[in-house]
Amino acid sequence: MSNLDDLLNIREACELTGKSEMTIRKYLGLTKPPRASRLPNARKEIRPGESVSTWQIPVSDLFNAGLMKSLPESQATLEQPDTSEQVIKLQAEIDQLKLVIATLEQSNSDLRANLADLRLLLGRSIETKDTQETRAKRWRLFNR
Prior knowledge:
about 140 residues, mainly alpha, three-stranded antiparallel beta sheet
């Protein structure tokens, strides 16, 4: 069958999807009035050995546009290619969030170390009022 990267003309796209030529043309935006194409990677080119330009429609565009209910049997195990700008943006955001997480984890570790140091210092140097009074009384008794 065809790969996801294969380019098809309108007739081949009709055969693969089971849709009419008018439907494929509508998805290409070839209607009056013209509409935005729902097949963004399709382009008009001259194939080698031909003199007339024809539409070259990627199989992945047909799948993404919902014209194919499932991948062809030979492509069922392949994943859909990640070529969209949204995927690139999301990957950049993930990388940025990983950096933020690493920074926060380091900050958390530093704060825990500081807290342990403070607890150690507080345990040695800060006394309650009752403790201070008791110590003062003992000091006075021994120094008489």
